Amino acid sequence: MAGFALKLKTKSGQMVIKGLASKDTIFELKRKLSCLTNIKENALYVLSGYPPKPIDLSVNEATLESRGISSGDTLIVEEKQQNIVLSVQQNARLEEPRHHIIDSELGCPGVLMKMVVPADNSCLFTSIGFVLSGKVDVDNSPFMRQIIAESVSNDPDNYSEAILGKPNPEYCHWILKPDSWGGAIELAVLSNFYGLEIAVVDTLNAIINRFGEDQHYAQRVFLMFDGIHYDPLYLEPFEGNSIQTMFLTTDELVFRQAEELAREARSSKQYTDLDRFTLKCIHCQELLSGQIQAQQHAKATGHMNFGEIQ
User: Under CATH, to which class is 5-79 assigned?
Assistant: First the structure.
């Protein structure tokens, strides 16, 4: 088919795939993707659509058309993992991957829970990676930082010094550093890039901040923010083995669960008030005062569990 082209997104960047047609086979697609990404054909994990969903690559003779792949589509390519960490306990165990997207307008009956991700200055990016893929992968950070830097660099009018707090080129250099923390700007960029509403449960104020709300996206994901650290939220079903990390924006039941989580977290003081607090680090008992000290301590030690001193 003349003009047939696909967009490809990987951790190393983006490109356009040409030379295929709708009648070409999955075998030909896998061969081309393997060549472009250096991932072995049997280890390719390919997602497409909004929200991104896995494409069945098991039948080599199937056509791209039969798998719903059309010219102009975006393919997100990752390397298949044999095991992923899904336990929310401190001593996490390795389990077989579980599906993380439920194809149901009614949603999945269950309990909204927090998946704890590492406190390594990239918790925001790891959290977004989890709600997209269903697995904790600390290697998501460089790819997402590159997305943000390119988006901001390409739009200097909307991302001016007044918005960024520093000159556009300086910000782009800064966000690429592994010790730079993500926040509202980065959430807005990634919401736009992935075509998802990102709802952030703010445990300090017991509210939910919605990034991409004005774009009327069909899908929503949830993160929790305690003033310093981001963790992803997922729905643990009452029955079955499939967690859910993506939800319809029309799903009011799960949104109400998120609101209840925000209230519960605030009432039990599961937050860090960055303006008015004296804290004691639960790990090492060090006393801290103010936003700068808390952030410096968290960055230096990786300690993220604080208790407020009245």
Answer: alpha beta
Backbone phi and psi for residue 254, each to the nearest 5 degrees, phi listed first:
-70, -30
Taking phi over 0 as left and psi of -120 to 50 as alpha, with beta for the rest, 179 belongs to: alpha
Instruction: Tell me which architecture the domain covering 99-267 has in CATH.
Output: Alpha-Beta Complex (3.90)
**Spatial separation of the C-alpha atoms in residues 310 and 305, rounded to whole Å:** 16
List the structure tokens of 117. 């991700």
Which is the catalytic residue, given 108, 229, 231, 251?
Answer: 229
pLDDT digits (tens, 9 = 90+) for 13-58: 667 888 899 899 999 999 999 888 888 888 888 877 755 677 888 8
Q: Catalytic: 35?
A: no
Residue given tokens 């319809």 in the structure block: 248
**DSSP H or E segment with residue 161:** helix 161-164
Active site residue 283: no
pTM: 0.58
The H-or-E segment that residue 288 falls in is strand 287-289
> Is 172 annotated in the active site?
no
**CATH 3.90.70.80 location in the chain:** 99-267
